[in-house]
Amino acid sequence: MNPHATMALSEPLDQSAEARVAAYDWQAISSELNGFGCGVLEKLLSAEECRRISALYTQEQHFRSHIHMARHGFGKGEYRYFKYPLPDLLGGLRTALYPHLADVANQWNGRMGIDERYPAEHAQFLRQCHDAGQTRPTPLLLQYVPGDFNCLHQDLYGDLAFPIQVAILLSEPGEDFTGGEFVLTEQRPRMQSRVEVVPLRQGDAVAFAVHNRPVQGTKGNYRVNLRHGVSRVRSGLRHTVGIIFHDAR
Predict the structure, then answer these.
(1) Is the pTM of this model over 0.85?
(2) Which fold has domain 15-243?
(3) What is the pLDDT of residue 119?
(4) What are the structural domain ranges in the chain?
(5) Where are the alpha helices (DSSP H) in the chain?
């Protein structure tokens, strides 16, 4: 049982977080992450689960802070950081996703010559964060209305930062909103930046590199720098939940 989770969604889970995460082809997802810096987990959440999580946005008791992006130059839109204990479904997914992504992260650090290795279990990694003074939870719920967008950025938050993040689209493109595509850019040394636009449907998740990832070149591995964002929402209402694996100061 995740010590940082509690049942905040009233309906029972359709399937445990651990079981649904284990059902994916993680070799294929790892290959996508290695090749393009991102990989999609289709239908991680049901439509009903997406609606229930989106409905939490107006319930302030679940959150520790409310951010308006324009005040900080982040773009236009808003988001709320969850507080501990997390909703059970989100806490469970955070715990279940972490070991699969830690394997990729450790491989990346080895290829980039970085000594740091991430522990096998998320609880161990959170203990490291808390020992370093990073105790505030980072999962967040984002809301966009027409004209809103999220500037290209990196979610780091402290000395300890996990290099892969997961975002889950809670709204249905073409029905709930238009525009608002998830965008990932990759800057390679002495080359022009490459852009990846990731098509997502309601309930789909994308795992993506937050900061750096290795790329195999003719003379060995080199690092590329990544940023992510969301293009302008043209109509409707768009909700996304972000699962960040490190805690913040």
Answers:
(1) yes
(2) Jelly Rolls (2.60.120)
(3) 98
(4) 15-243
(5) 17-22, 26-36, 47-54, 69-72, 88-112, 122-131
